[in-house]
Amino acid sequence: MKDNKPIVEIMDLSFRYDKEIVLKDINLEVDRGAYLAVVGPNGSGKSTLLKLILGLLKPPAGQIKIFGKDITHFKEQHKIGFVSQKANSFNTGFPATVYEVVASGLTKKIGLFRFMDKKDKEKTREAVKAVGMEEFINRNIGELSGGQQQRVFIARALVSKPELLILDEPTVGVDSKHVNSFYGMLESLNKEQGITLMLVTHDIGAISDKVTHVACLNKHLHFHGSSREFEQLKINDVSEIYGHDINILTHDHGHHDHHGGSST
Predict the structure, then answer these.
(1) In whole angstroms, what is the distance from residue 35 CA to residue 195 CA?
(2) pLDDT (tens digit, 9 = 90+) per residue, 30-80?
(3) In a domain, 23, yes or no
(4) Residue 232: which residues within 8 A CB-CB, separation 6 or more?
(5) Number of structural domains in the chain
(6) Is the backbone of residue 37 left (phi > 0), alpha (psi -120 to 50) or beta?
(7) Looking at residue 27, what is its pLDDT?
(8) Residue 197 sits in which domain range?
(9) pLDDT class for 86, splitting at 50, 70, 90?
(10) Band of the pLDDT at 257, cuts 50, 70, 90?
(11) Which residue of 44, 58, 204, 239 could cross-link 40, Cys pair, CB 3.0 to 4.6 Å?
C-alpha cells in the first residue's frame, strides 16, 4: 500500500536568532511527488526553514514531521538528499572526476574504504545520466562550468536514491542562459523518477511553470498553493510580500516568456 502521508509536515513552527524572529507560525505540508518552490526576499527565513527540516537547527516552538515521524526521532537520513549553494564556491583545483565526486555520495552507505561493487558502479552511472552529465563522467570537476558542477552535486545527492531532494538556491553560479534547462532537468527528476523536490529559489520567473507548488515566505507563510494558483495571484500581491516590485512569468500555449524574478 502506498503511503499517502505528507513527506514533510510543519505545524505552528516559529524560530528566532537571539531576539530576531525569523519564522513565525509556519504551517506547511509537502506531499509525496510534489515539486515545491519556496520563494521570498532575502532574510525571509527560507534557508532557516531548510535547516530546520534537515535537523541542522532545533525548533523552539512547533513541530516538524518527516516521513510521518517527529524530526527528533527521525533516523532515516538516507531518504533525504541535500544540495547547498556549492557551485560558486567550489575549489576548482580539487583533483576528482565527475564519476568520483558522484560515487562519494555512497560513502555513508558503503563506508569510505570499501570497494564499490558492480551495483554501486551502476548506481553512480545512473545518477550521472539522470542529470545529463554522462559525456563528462571522466572529466575533472574543476574543468566544468558552475552549472555543470551543480548538476554533479545533484547527482551525488541522487546516488543513494533519496525520496526527498532539498536544494538551496541551486542556480547560484549557474550562467543565466542555462538556468532554464537546469530547472527542466529538475522537473524531469520529479516527473520521471518520482523524486519529491523542495527548492529554495529567487528565480520566480524561471520556475513557476515547472514546479507543482509554490510557498511564498517572508517570516510568515503568505501563500502556499499550486503553481497555477500562484500564477493567478496579482503582481501587486506578490510585490507586497517582497516589499518591492517583482516579475512573475507569463506564458501561454506552451510559449514561455522567461524573464528573471527578483535577484536581490
Answers:
(1) 8
(2) 999 999 999 888 888 998 999 999 999 988 889 999 999 999 888 888 899
(3) yes
(4) none
(5) 1
(6) beta
(7) 95
(8) 8-87+163-257
(9) low
(10) very low
(11) 44
pLDDT of residue 196: 95
CB contact at 8 A, 141 and 99 = no
Q: Which pairing describes strands 35-39 and 213-218: parallel, antiparallel, or unpaired? A: parallel
Whether residue 130 lies inside any domain: the answer is: no
Whose cell is 539522470? That residue is 130
Distance set, CA 84 to CA 129, 158, 214, 239, 264 (Å) = 21, 14, 19, 27, 18
- DSSP character string of 119-138: HHHHHHHHHHHHTT-GGGTT
Question: Can you give the CATH number for the domain in which 237 is found?
Answer: 3.40.50.300
Rounded to 10 degrees, the C-alpha dihedral 14/10/194/155 comes to: 30
The answer to whether residue 208 is domain-embedded is yes
> Pairing state of beta strands 196-200 and 35-39?
parallel
Q: 148-157, pLDDT tens digit by residue?
A: 888 999 999 9
pLDDT class for 114, splitting at 50, 70, 90? low
Q: How remote is the C-alpha of 90 from its chain's centroid?
A: 18
DSSP symbol at 243: T
